[in-house]
Amino acid sequence: MKLQRPDPGIDAAKSGLHGKAGIFFNAGLLEKGEPRFDLQDLDPYLVFDSRESMLGTLENPTLDLDPATPSTLDVITATRAGTATYTDPDGNIATASADTVRVDYTQGAELTPTVFQRVGYTDFSQNWSNTNTSDVAGSGYTGEASRIVTANSSTAKYFISVSSVNAVVYTLSFYIRRISGSGTISAYHGSAANGNQTDITVTSEWTRQQVTFTGDGGNILAGVRIVTSGDQVEIAMPQVEEGTTASDFVANTTGSPKFIASATYGPRVPMILVEPSATNLLSYSEDFSVWVKAGEIETTTNFTVSPDGTQNATKLELTGSSSGTDGKISFPVSTASQTHTFSVYAKKGSHNYIYIWMAITGGNITRWINLDDGSHSGSGTATLKTTEVGNDWWKIEYTFDATNLYNIRLEVAGNFISTGTGGDNVYIWGAQLEAGSVATSYIPTSGSTVTRAADDLVISGSDFTDAYNASEGTFYVESVTDSALGARYIFQASSSTGNPYSNRHTVYYSDHQNLQRVGVVSTKDNASQFSAFPSSSQFTVGTLTRSAFSYKTGDFRFSTDGGAELTPSGLKVPSPTINQIHLGASHAGTVSMNGHLKRLIYWPLHSDSL
């Protein structure tokens, strides 16, 4: 009963969960745009014994929660006092009524990235650096400027520094020809602290060279390296861009990344949103006119359309008439000494940088965020995440130790300096400060702090007992957690009487032994317990995880994301008193998954019977 990870180079149908009879359910049964289980997606050579068809069994689970088909969620009893927000099919932040299941339409898979020409001066006029090299203007190539670079010693380099986003893949490309010498020439790339090089073949003819590398969230170096003193090359049309393939050259003399093409995404994916209770500690989340102003700054409310689809976002603008003006808005806060997360939506206006400052006694935490591409830099210990949410809006999430936090400040900023120019403006909306290491769904406030209640989602009574088989069964679940701290329950099937933990099935995320892993627990009468963490079951926060769990007397099986199948023997199944299943939390509504459920399917048979 192994859940296999799809090989991106083959048909996705060759991934699933299999047992003795060869059941193979396609990871694609939950792929975006594939809301229903399609037997035609199953791999033909592993699915069915030639003497006996299993079609009827496979296509008829007794429980199938599929957010793409809302009627399948009718069996869920949702309890949540008060309203809460979610993302609707159009990508707008919307409000859900109390006691409802929130189906959150998350961003589809990125098909192509947003692409920028990240070399600020492709004409070599500014910001290029020499290490053991000298350079002079060349004769040019196809109408673009070129530069002749001479090595003055070994390990000579000619390069420019460009911004990057952490973990994003980039391609460096340039045209180059050899003028003299025969030594090794390399493309120079990588972090400013530890540049790397990739050897390239350079002849006397112009050729375009390209290499790929991964950004680290800071500035990266891009250029050429010459290893033999006296060797000369001529280079032209340098480009650094997102992705693995060099696109047509784009000239740039702005000193900043120049937009080439917008990201494209697959269709939005409906998932059940499950979150614990949270409080927005900022009493004004949208009306920034009541935040404290300092310096030459102005706020214009209801200026443009916000991520909720209405015209209620604020323009934040420097009002000074000369370069070097400084202005900020701030909100005083007082928090407990623990980890907190600040989040805000921001969009470039006439300017593309916003500066966020956490004022903390004894030291500040600062970040400059580029609203063109989400890159950032700053000082102080914090984790910053930027997510593009559509219509050029970015959600900025800023997690830090809030010891003695007393002020949150927002500024229109210059390029990695604390001041801008009069008239510079950006747009802001939806500020939130909450305890914990995760920015949860938006909680609007207007004059006081607001607490969103936890989601309590349970299937009980005949809706569950008619589906559940106490003696054997198989669960399959796809989920995403936004937190790696502690235990995060994906689901728990338990008893509603006595001690629910004495008889239970639980699949959960955990930081077990300092590893982010997915585990399973089954207990009978609080005694015979099967508890396991497959060695290869590590997960990544914010990434879809697929887990499968099958049970019967003497045979438990568990696999996640293609990890080795665990098959311990001699174990008993829980007593038949199990009569409910909680989604994304324990029976008590605690240890919330704090994330999304994409699909949960249950068959009343062990995998070797399917």
Structure overview:
- It contains 3 helices and 48 strands.
- It is globular.
- Strands 3, 7, 22, 40, 45, 46 and 48 form a 7-stranded antiparallel β-sheet that branches. A 7-stranded antiparallel β-sheet has the order 4-39-47-41-42-43-44. It has a 6-stranded antiparallel β-sheet with strand order 24-28-35-30-31-32, with no helix packed on it.
- It starts with a strand and ends in a 7-residue tail after the last strand.
- It is mainly β.
- The chain has 3 domains: 2-108 and 455-609, Jelly Rolls; 115-261, Galactose-binding domain-like (Jelly Rolls, Sandwich); 278-452, Jelly Rolls.
- Residues 1-56 have low confidence and may be disordered.
In short:
With 610 residues, the protein is an all-beta fold.
Please specify the SSE layout and strand pairing.
Blueprint: E1 2-3, E2 17-18, H1 44-47, H2 55-58, E3 63-65, E4 77-79, E5 84-87, E6 93-96, E7 103-106, E8 110-112, E9 115-117, E10 128-131, E11 133-137, E12 146-151, E13 156-163, E14 169-180, E15 185-191, E16 195-200, E17 207-214, E18 219-226, E19 232-242, E20 258-261, E21 264-265, E22 269-274, E23 278-280, E24 292-295, E25 297-304, E26 313-318, E27 323-325, E28 327-332, E29 339-348, E30 353-360, E31 365-370, E32 376-379, E33 383-390, E34 393-401, E35 405-412, E36 420-421, E37 425-435, E38 450-452, E39 456-460, H3 462-465, E40 472-481, E41 488-494, E42 504-510, E43 517-524, E44 528-532, E45 545-552, E46 555-560, E47 580-583, E48 595-603
Antiparallel strand pairs: 1-2, 3-48, 4-39, 5-6, 7-22, 8-21, 9-20, 10-13, 11-12, 12-19, 13-18, 14-17, 14-19, 15-16, 15-18, 22-48, 23-38, 24-28, 25-26, 26-37, 27-36, 28-35, 29-34, 29-37, 30-31, 30-35, 31-32, 33-34, 39-47, 40-45, 40-48, 41-42, 41-47, 42-43, 43-44, 45-46
